[in-house]
Amino acid sequence: MNHTFRSSEREKLEIIAGLLQQADYRISRIREDGNQYVVTARLVGRATIKGERERIEGIVQHFDVEEWTLHE
């Protein structure tokens, strides 16, 4: 599963990327796409879809990320 995060605030994505990297996610470089920054994260280990979604939704809500997509 891949997760893509978009935000106009690079700092938010840097914090999220750091947290997810510590939780065994592979993190792409933060890139600029128009007026937003984008980063992708992929879990290295195994997780259930429900557990994965709940974990990431909590992060998205806490940091008020503008856009998040899950690619299964």
Q: What general outline do the C-alpha atoms trace?
A: globular
CATH topology: Alpha-Beta Plaits
Sheet with the most strands?
5 strands, antiparallel
**Roughly what fraction of the amino acids lie in strands?**
25-35%
Q: What is the class in the CATH system?
A: Alpha Beta
Which structural class matches the secondary elements?
alpha+beta
Protein name: BON domain-containing protein
Supply database-style keywords:
72 residues; alpha+beta; Alpha-Beta Plaits; 5-stranded antiparallel β-sheet; 5 strands; BON domain-containing protein
Helix-strand layout with pairing:
Layout (H helix, E strand, L loop, with lengths): L1 E6 L2 H13 L2 E3 L3 E3 L2 E8 L5 H15 L3 E5 L1
Q: How would you describe the overall organization of this protein?
A:
It comes from Exiguobacterium aestuarii. This is BON domain-containing protein. With 72 residues, the protein is of the alpha+beta class. It has a single domain (2-71), classed as Alpha-Beta Plaits, CATH 3.30.70. 39% of the residues lie in helices and 35% in strands. The protein has helices at 10-22, 49-63, and strands at residues 2-7, 25-27, 31-33, 36-43, 67-71. Strands 1, 2, 3, 4 and 5 form a 5-stranded antiparallel β-sheet that branches. Strand 3 (31-33) and strand 4 (36-43) form a beta hairpin. The longest helix has 15 residues, at 49-63. 14% of the residues are buried.
Short description:
39% of the residues lie in helices and 35% in strands. With 72 residues, the protein is an alpha+beta fold.
